[in-house]
Amino acid sequence: MKFVIVTGLSGAGKSEAMKALEDIGFYCVDNLPITLISKFTELCYQSKSTIEKIALGIDIRGRGFFKYLNDSLEMLKKFGYEYEILFLDCDDSVLVKRYKMTRRNHPLSSNTDIVEGIKKEREFLHELKQKANNIINTSNMKPRDLKEEINRIYLEGDKKNNLTISVMSFGFKHGIPLDADLVFDVRFLPNPYYVEELREKTGEEEVVRTYVMNSPISIKFFEKLSDMIDFLIPQYVEEGKNHLVIAVGCTGGRHRSVTIANLLYDYLKEKNYRVLKRHRDHTLR
């Protein structure tokens, strides 16, 4: 039996993920009280029904029971019930926009603002995120993109073991991403910021990409970067890592880092890795 626990930050897309899982044959149960997880799992595994795939959604709305979560998960292990954790993550700035757009309150922001509620929830879920088998950051995803990623993980199977690679661009002046496993500094590459007609553009545009890569240093760097990535990924797979975050940074996160992150994403895609891409700071000034 395939048993998946779906959780993550409020507003990150858990409901959409549950819909996507239901579409591919999962029997989905949302917001089951934490204290009933072990009993529910026992019934599922011992049942003579034809259900082979189950998704259980839990979130901060059940925070009164969350203190029992570790005990429930340990009990599942004790009785040999196998499960996976799918964690939906999202950048704080995107979560704030989503809450403002829907005009809904954050579950933990009744007496504080949305940002403070998100901060509390992220701290609260930190340990659970560390246990996740798969982490999907939905910051730059539409519902269709999330559905495609769910399908890649749970329909296509173990083509490259179970490793999901996230390639991220960022600006050092906005801070290094806290969840990065590998950080590459590309501030030594040709900088389009100093070319007036390129300054307001981003690495998503071909003219910027051409400018950055029209240098022997840039070409040589990407060759060495791709060679290193080719060496490292099998080591992470062998270690059993499920999610690898590769962060590429330049000063502002708009030109050079976006260019290299796009190239690396395309490179990994060609090798049939399960890979995601997001540009954290390319719209910031």
Automatic annotation (TrEMBL):
UniProt protein name: UPF0042 nucleotide-binding protein
Give any GO molecular function from the UniProt entry.
Answer: GTP binding
Q: Where does GTP bind?
A: 59-62
Q: Does the keyword Magnesium apply?
A: no
- The answer to whether keyword ATP-binding applies is yes
Give all residue intervals belonging to the RapZ-like N-terminal domain: 1-154
Position of the signal peptide: none
| Lineage, highest ranks first | Bacteria, Bacillati, Bacillota, Clostridia, Peptostreptococcales
Q: Where does ATP bind?
A: 8-15
Name the HAMAP family for this protein. Answer: RapZ_like (MF_00636)
All residue ranges annotated as the RapZ C-terminal domain in the record: 163-282
Q: PANTHER family from the entry?
A: RNASE ADAPTER PROTEIN RAPZ (PTHR30448:SF0)
InterPro entries recorded for this chain?
Answer: P-loop_NTPase, RapZ-like, RapZ-like_N, RapZ_C
Q: Which UniProt keywords apply?
A: ATP-binding, GTP-binding, Nucleotide-binding
Pfam families per UniProt = PapZ_C (PF22740), RapZ-like_N (PF03668)
